[in-house]
């Protein structure tokens, strides 16, 4: 089915869109352009929505706003925002009376005319997704990048052609109730995350498995052999599995051996390039490069993989060098919203760093963060709701050497303190190990704010 047929089939239906966020505004516009009646349900008030509310009015939609926005959902088709749990009582009640609950991403999978590559995981999925896009684009393929990475793909689906490739980053929120899987699926790794949303780690992992649970015979699945949780995932007979490893050779997939990246297929291996040729720093980015290389194997020449590896500068907010001032280098790692991401960031530097950390509490464990901070950090500046948790894990770590710990009122104060502490040759990195929602709209806004604060020093 194409998007035109879908829109024609739902004529006469009442449509609800939950959430007036970035991913849903293009969907709302698409539905209204087709002449469909749309009601937007959003927890924010008209005043809080500001310009978005004016845009909704201009589109001619009805609105149900404020704390009681989910009190009734009488519409025939309900598009769920990813941030609303699919088993929310309001959605369950809507299903019970015959309403169809779907999402922008699920509709995209239904109407997309071209092959879809889907990438998920706890860490590294944005960098891996972007690398795959750059490699295929470098090989001359027509590609479309989007999903959780920022840009909704549905508004552009009518311009996609059968020979194109859609490369989609998928979050657990998007995957949780998906009934379709991409032809090529990849899971970078799995560690506790978003436990403020999921009832437990098992639910989070099961959500991630939806990326391959609906694959068709011959579809491909790429997994991280070094990740214990990924290796315990339930099997799906339809999937042809490739593996990636930083520790050992694999029969089919990609691996690191003696400082060189290799691709292999059915036991035949070939060298790609040396790890120190990869432009973006850190061994976690070597792992991302292996995953991306395994995903595109057979879809583009090795020369294109290597060319991108040597020139790709990285994605903003991921160990991004903001500036060097007075001999001090400042790095923005705002994407690090979990301990595992911060540990990867700390491992990217040979010297001990000044770390700014803390933020919104997603109710995930921080125990694993204590020892790496002791080993890689000389001064720790904490702010936000998770500051006490991070401080406790450092103080309880089995390490004789502890960093100096400082408390900051907010990010601006943290940057000011870091600049006062730092000496020529030092590295200051903001790698929060926490979400941003206590003080910022998202990790990108947090990173942009950090960048502006550093530039203003």
Summarize the structure.
With 457 residues, the protein is α/β, with parallel strands linked by helices. It has helices at residues 3-9, 25-33, 46-49, 51-59, 89-96, 104-111, 125-138, 172-175, 201-209, 228-231, 283-296, 302-311, 339-346, 370-376, 387-395, 411-421, 443-455, and strands at residues 15-18, 38-42, 62-65, 77-79, 100-102, 115-120, 143-147, 165-169, 184-187, 220-224, 240-245, 253-257, 260-265, 268-274, 320-325, 328-332, 353-357, 377-382, 404-407, 427-430.
Description of the molecule:
By secondary structure, the protein is an alpha/beta fold. The protein folds into 3 domains: 3-102, Rossmann fold (3-Layer(aba) Sandwich); 112-311, UDP-N-acetylmuramoyl-L-alanine:D-glutamate ligase, CATH 3.40.1190; 320-455, Protein-Tyrosine Phosphatase, Chain A (Alpha-Beta Complex). The protein is 32% helix and 21% strand. The chain has helices at residues 3-9, 25-33, 46-49, 51-59, 89-96, 104-111, 125-138, 172-175, 201-209, 228-231, 283-296, 302-311, 339-346, 370-376, 387-395, 411-421, 443-455; strands at 15-18, 38-42, 62-65, 77-79, 100-102, 115-120, 143-147, 165-169, 184-187, 220-224, 240-245, 253-257, 260-265, 268-274, 320-325, 328-332, 353-357, 377-382, 404-407, 427-430. The chain has a 9-stranded mixed beta sheet with strand order 7-8-6-9-10-11-12-13-14, with helices on one face. A 6-stranded mixed beta sheet has the order 15-16-20-17-18-19, sandwiched between helices. It has a 5-stranded parallel beta sheet with strand order 3-2-1-4-5, sandwiched between helices. A hairpin with a 2-residue loop joins strand 12 and strand 13 (260-265). Helix 7 packs across helix 11 and helix 14 packs across helix 15 (387-395). The termini are far apart. 47% of the residues are buried. The model has no long low-confidence stretch (mean pLDDT 94).
